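The protein record quoted in full:

***
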Amino acid sequence: MKLLVLFLAILLAIEEPVVSVECWMDGHCRLLCRDNEDSIIRCRNRKRCCVPSRYLTIEPVTIHGLLDWTTPQISTTVPQTKINKNRG
């Protein structure tokens, strides 16, 4: 019996612990992401897959340049107020 316990202790000591789980774009599975990371999906162990923000902020580019609909548009027109003609 002592030999069996000794064998199990040695077997567990030799076994390498699973440190990382597969994550998207070489991210890390964490409970909370760091300030410079964003959570995209969940890992198999139900933790967040934290990916550095620099990988997520790439501007979409086509052969002809930037797409107009992907860049934010700021309206330069002043909103018109309607005049009520029925009031004196």
